[in-house]
Amino acid sequence: MTAIASxxxxxxxxxxVHLSVLLIxxxxxxxxxxxxxxxxxxxxxxxxxxxxxxMTGSSQTAAVRLADGAAARQEGANYVVSGTVFxxxxxxKIQSFGTKVTAPSEFPVGQPADLGDGExxxxxxxxxxxxxxxxxxxxxxxxxxxxxxxTPPAFTTSNYQTVxxxxxxxxxxxxxxxxxxxxxxxxxLIAAFAAYALSWMEFRGxxxxxxxxxxxxxxxxxxxxxxLLKMYNDVGALFGVPSRSYAGVWLAHAAFGMPLAIYLxxxxxxxxxKEIIESARVDGASDFEIFVKIVLPLSFPALASFAIFQFLWxxxxxxxxxxxxxxGREQLVLTGALNALLGSQGGKWEILTASAFITIIVPIAVxxxxxxxxxxxxxxxxxKGG
Amino acid sequence: xxxQLVSSLGVVIAGVFFCALYYWLSDKLLxxxxxxxxxDPRAASLALNRRAAVRPWLFxxxxxxxxxxxxxxxxxxxxxxSFYDRSGxxxxxxxNYVWAINDAQFxxxxxxNLMWLAxxxxxxxxxxxxxxxxxxxxxxGNIAKSxxxxxxxxxxxxxxxxxxxxxxxxxxxxxxxxxLNAIVQFFGGxxxxxxxxxxxxxxxxxxxxIWIQTxxxxxxxxxxxxxxxxxxxxxxxxDGANGWQIFWKIMVPQIWGTIAVxxxxxxxxxxxxxxxxxxxxxxxxxxxxxxxxxxxxMFRGGGDSGRSAVIALVIMAAVTPIMIWNIRQxxxxxxxx
Lengths: 386, 337
What we know:
- By secondary structure, chain A is an alpha+beta fold.
- Chain A has helices at 3-8, 14-39, 43-48, 158-166, 169-200, 206-216, 222-239, 246-270, 274-282, 287-298, 300-316, 319-325, 334-344, 349-369, 371-382; strands spanning 58-65, 73-75, 78-84, 93-98, 107-108, 113-116, 119-123, 128-133, 144-151.
- Chain B is an all-alpha fold.
- The longest helix of chain B is centred in the N-terminal third of the chain and has 41 residues, at 41-81.
C-alpha cells in the first residue's frame, strides 16, 4: 500500500474527488474542444452562434408565402392549394406555424388548423402543406405564414480544404516537417556519443564539462540570437549563400537541444550495468564497438524520450524559425503561419481554428502514442535525487 | 512540396550517415596514428594510453563544437555587444543600460515579468500538486492525467489561438461566440474586451501558460508523491492526523526537493515566455514582457543589437541563480556516486 492509499482512508469523501477531477478535466479539455468543433462548422454559423450550440442546431422564425390561390384545384366541395414552404435547396424541420405576426407559433404541425372563413391549413414537419377552403380562393398573392424552423447542425470539412490549399498551411506543414525531422534525429546521435564519453571514459575536465552542460541547460535562447544572427549573416556573405536556410535552423535546433540531450542520455547511460561494459572491454572491444553494439541498443528508451522532447520543441517552436528561417510566406513553419494568420485573418475563426487544429494534431498524436517515454524522460530529467 | 520532403528525408539520412562516418573514421584514424606494434610492450601500452586520452575528445567533439559555437560564444558576444551601438560597431559604454533604466516600456516589461514570475510557477505547482493527489486516488486517474497533461504538446501559438477564441468579444447586439463572454452574459454581466484591459489582461495571458504547464507539474509531483514511504503516513494516521494535516505536514515536506525543481523549471520557462505575448497582443495594452521586447528590438527599425543585448542580459541575470543552484545540485549528486 502506498502513502497515497493510506491517505485515502482519512481523506475527503470519494465522490467529491471524482467530481472535482471530472470538473478539472472538462475545464482543461473545453478550450481545445472549442476550436475542434468550430473548425468543422459553417462560417456563417460560427459567426452567429457559440460553438457549444453546434450540436443542437439553431431555431429561427421565418416568414413565407403559400402558393397563389389561382393554383388551387377543386376536390369535391373544397378548393385545395398544396406544396412545400421550403424553396429548392432549403432544409429544416418545422416546429410550429401561425398566420399572424403576433402569434408566429400558434399552431402545432401535423394537424389541421382552423383559420376561420371555412379555411384550414395543415403544415407537416417536413414543410409540405395543404391549404383548404370550402369556396374558391381569391386569386392574387398567396397567404403569408410564419414558421418556427430548426435547422439541423451542419458540419463541413471545407474550412480545412480552404486553409490547406489557399492559406499556405499545406506548404507550412511541409516546412515544419522539414525543420523538425532532421532537428530531432541528428542531435540524438551527437549527444549519445558525448554522453557515453561522459559516462564511461576517464579524462581530465570531465566534471567541468558536466557542470557546463547543466549550466547551459537554462541559458535563455535570447542570449544566443543576436550574435548568431550576425554570424549567419557573415557566413552567408562570405560564401555567397543565403544566410537563412534550413541547414542553419537544423544546426541551431541541434545545438539548443544539446545540453538537455547530453544530460538526459548521460543520466541513463551512466546507470547501465557496469558489468556489461567491463566484460566487453575485457573481451577486447573498443569504446566505439561498445557504444554501437551495446550502449546504443540498451539506451533506446532514453533516446526515444529525448527524441520526443526535441520533436515537440522543434515542431512547436516559433522563435528560432522566425529568426533563422525568416518570415516570408514560403519559409513559414506552421507556428509562424498561424501567427501570420492571426494578424491578417483576425476575426475569421473558421480559418484560424482549422489552421490551429492542423498545427496541433501532429504533436498531440505523438503525445498520446508515446506518452510513456515522455513521462519517463521528464522524470529522469528532474526528479533524480530530488 | 513532395520534393522538399524527400530532400528533408535525404538530409536526415545523409546527416546520420556523416555523423556515423565521422565517429567511425576518427576512431580508425586514431588507430592508424597511434599503432600498437607487437614485440614492444612498453610502446604498445603507451600507444594505448594515448588513444584512451584522445578518444573521449573525438566522442565529445561535435557536441562541444555545437555547444561552444551556439551557446558559450554567444553569451560572451551578447555581453560585449551590450556596450556597443545599434549596429554593434561603435563602443558606447553604458548608454544602452542607461536607456533601459529610463525606458517606460522596459520598466513595464520588468513589472509584467515579475507578475508572471509571481503567479505562473505558483499556480502551476499548486494545481499540479492538488491534481496529482486527487488523480492518484481514483481508478480513472491515469486517463484524467493524460487529458490534463495534453496541452503540453500544444505549441504556444496554437494555445494562443485556442484561448483567443475563448476571450473573443463581439460588439453591439451580436451573439457572443467567445465562451468567457457568453458565460459572463449568462450570469447577467456585460461582455468585455478581455485582451485590452490593462493590467488584468496579463492574467488572461498567464492563464494560457498555466493551462499548458500544470500537466508538467502534475506528472513530476505525482511521481514524487508515490515515492513517499508509506510508514510516515501510516504513523500520522495512527496518531489521529486528518487528511489535510497529513497532506501539508507529512507529505509536502517530503517532496520539497521536487517542488523546487518544478518551480524553478517553470520559472525559467516564464522568463523566456515570448510566443504567447507575441501572438495574443504583441505587447500592446501594457502586456509587454522582456523576451518579447528583446525580439522587438532585434528587428525594430532595422534592429538594435545593443539594446536587445541588454534586455537578453537581464533575462540571463534572472536565470543565473537557478543555474548556479542546478550546477551545485548536479555536483553533489555525481559526488555521491
